Amino acid sequence: MAVPPRYTPERPGPRPAADPARTRRTPPRVLVLRALGLGDLLAGIPALRGVRRAFPGHEIVLAAPESLRAPALATGAVDTLLPTRAPGRAVPSLLHWPGPPPDLAVDLHGNGPESHAALAALRPRRLLSYARPQPSHPAPPEWRYDEHERDRWCRFLRAYGIDADPEDVRLPPPDRPSPVPGAVVVHPGADSAARRWPAERYAAVVAGLRSAGHRVVLTGGPGEERLNTTVADLGGLGRHDVFSGGLPYGEFSALIAGCALLVSGDTGPAHLAVAHGVPTVTLFGPVAPHLWGPPAAPRHIALWHPGPPGDPHATEPDPLLMRIGPDEVLRAARGVLGVPDDPVLATRAARHG
After folding, report:
1. Burial class (CB in 10 A: 0-12, 13-18, 19+), 290
2. pTM for the complete prediction?
3. Nearest to residue 295, comparing CAs of 277, 309, 268, 320?
4. Which among 36, 95, 113, 184 has the fewest CB atoms less than 10 Å away?
5. Which of 99, 49, 100, 96 lies closest to 72, judged by CA?
6. What is the DSSP-derived secondary structure letter of residue 255?
7. Are 320 and 284 in contact (CB under 8 A)?
8. What single DSSP character describes residue 195?
């Protein structure tokens, strides 16, 4: 088996001319494209840190939505954000890239030719991508569909001699305390209905946790106010227990980092909780946890009923997600919290669900 050489940015061949004065003033730059959501960014932390370690003297620039600036910088692997976005998971334009071409461009966005082409348009010295592996490489990486997201991108980098550890997911502690330390945080929302468990089921879990003596609060992003109001009303929470509308990242990160447990669907906050070492109970449906779930650890429970993969962007809750009942979630939550199971509470939850 061929062993890939350790990556070096130098290679023969012409390079686009650059302003010598600017070259002296600024370090070489690496442009990484991953213009997706919060969960995608956090799943990409191991790969981003691999790039950071491989190029300590370079400026690492991440092409991603402006809304991800704070979490991107918090990883410690990114120096600068190039704000860019496109609808859904489409590939955005990068033509507003300033200055000379990147020394290296890395496509962590996907495996299609579109993301490769967007980076190639900037004429980088070298471009790493799944879509068009460098033909001279002894063992170019191949895209595998049945592979966890963290493993996929670390393997991709290792094929080019860049070390990356898929378990390297932790973020440093936030610079502020949680407003409700020790609470159980429930996040009912998700970007698509396919991954959004029904409000009445979340409410049954909230009621069961409150009956067991836990402080419970809800979080939600912009546009999820009505969903959280429904869950709060059915679960017996007051308005002071609801953090809706999208907290600034620093406050949201502190809230998650200081909680006793996060209960949510397969969405960005679940990845943030993992990055802060917080226990999680995560509900999966159209996408299996072996593809996007948390690292294997007792403090992380991924609930999923095996079945055919679904459409993660569908407009109705996925059938596999709907197989999960409130009693199942309550048992998992109580197990993570170290509380013996209560059959009475489980029965009440089953009735609500």
Report:
1. middle
2. 0.88
3. 277
4. 95
5. 49
6. H
7. yes
8. G
Q: Which two tokens stand for residue 50?
A: 């691999």
For 333, phi then psi, to 5°, come to -65, -45
Buried b (16+ CB within 10 A) or exposed e, 178-208: bebeebbbbbbbbbbebbbbbbebbbbbbbb
Nearest-angstrom CA–CA distance, 326 and 92 = 40
